[in-house]
Amino acid sequence: MARRRKGEQVSGWICLDKPLDVTSTQAVGRVRRVFNAQKAGHAGTLDPLASGILPIALGEATKTVPFLMDAGKVYRFVIEWGRATASFDREGAVIATSDVRPSRAAVAAALPAFVGDIEQVPPAFSAIKVDGERAYDLAREGVELDLAARIVTIKSAEVVGEPDGDHVEIELACGKGAYVRAVVRDLAAMLGAHGHVSALRRTAVGSLTEARAISLEKLENLCDSAARLEALLPVETALDDIPALAVTTEDAFRLTQGRSIVLLPRQAEALKASLRNGSRIVSAFGEGRIVALCEMRAGRLNPTRVFHLT
After folding, report:
1. Catalytic residues, which ones?
2. Check: CATH 3.40.50.880 for 12-71+208-238?
3. How far is residue 141's CA from residue 20's CA, in Å, rounded to a whole number?
4. What pTM was estimated for this model as a whole?
5. Which of 21, 32, 120, 160 has a CA 20 to 30 Å removed from the CA of 256?
């Protein structure tokens, strides 16, 4: 007999405003305890030195984590000029210093070179795997790494503030896999300066923004289950870019059984028109509730992930 999971069968997303000095894993554990949830995970690590949007999936929502992992992200960060550190944030050991303080205008003029599909070498202190080990573990051991450049997408980058001559604040929108610390490293090199990230906040992941976020403190202080459930966003929150189709009760049952369904010609045409970037993924809803993620082929929907929501 299969062992029963401990906890409640609660499903949905929490748009958490992660505080400083808390790891993403710790944040997931604390949210899981708030809901006594059987299963939990997150969509995109935030370092302890960073605050902001950390999407946390509970229950059946964990099946949609990859979609938010691939979503666009927005960061607001502060560069402190004068010191470069090994990790290019305020935690690392200082490795170089400089008296150069680039002006706001100079930074603004340099940023367009970082927008678009660009080659970026990940920082040594990153979660990239090298021969099965995390780069940051090797870097902490003093191993010199030669990480390969990757193509990443930076959608926009602009100066939004200059607190003083030693600091500049930038807002950057990017795709999956881009590193803010690498941008700072390369920007400083372009400007003949040294600098590091002194403050970092993620303000959006896909459709999850600060306006939809709840703080960890507020979530933990919610006294009753009804208030906690109000903070939960639907499982399909991660699927904003996926075409949706309402299906009959009979077809919904077939999908939950792992069986395909036949589309009407007009349904197939409408879905084809709404698919993007060669994707064939469609979300199927029965009675207003998501029942499956499906692949559309030859006029049929074939379930690839089935949801069991009560």
Report:
1. 47
2. no
3. 25
4. 0.90
5. 32
